[in-house]
Design goal:
By secondary structure, the chain is an alpha/beta fold. It contains six helices and ten strands, in the order βββαββαβαααβαβββ. Helix 4 packs across helix 5.
Amino acid sequence: MAQAPVVRLRDVTKSYGAGTARTQVLRGVSLDIAKGELVALVGQSGSGKSTLLNIIGGLDQPDAGEVEVLGTDTVAAGDAKRARLRNRSIGFIFQAFNLLEHLTCLGNVVIPAAFSHDAKDVEQRGREALRRVGLSDFAGRYPGELSGGQKQRVAIARALFGSPALLLCDEPTGNLDSETGKEVIDFFRELNQKDKVTLLIVTHERRVSSVAQRVIAMRDGMIVETSDEALGAEGAGPA
């Protein structure tokens, strides 16, 4: 029996605004992502990439269509059930890092524990997450003392704190120099290959194609190509 996909979307639509200001962002998107896949999602700014990522992560809801993530129907689920799914099974990584400046690196990493009933060994788990991203000695430092690459590693450690099955990344290398970005991408590949974490990475950078098993190109709210050549497709320009 075939294993159910980690992400299953069918005819997903999403619009914002009303009346003459109404803009349709997603137009009938259907997509499956299998367990253990590393998928890159590319396309021009306004193509719907980030909106699709937010719907998969339960941060936004579609106007219509089916969304199933890790076996949960997130359209039918209530806010509390979606929040539990995000906290227990999904990790988020953003371009802007989203670290709290008044907290240490360790404090930022363990933030998810504040929204979970599983408060066991919080500090130990936080330090282990920092160790996994090569920042064992940075637990007591503050974001203002870190380079951009180190901040992103702290953000990755925070995403890994709950041992997620699915990692959603929105332009994770957008604020990094080429060498640091390569290190982060290599780490994603290691997570995928060794830990079997499923990754969906929104990106406009071609270097992601070196690690992605599948590249999905979007244009005008629709999937226009799904292949390992999609980064070279028309419409896969800057995000």
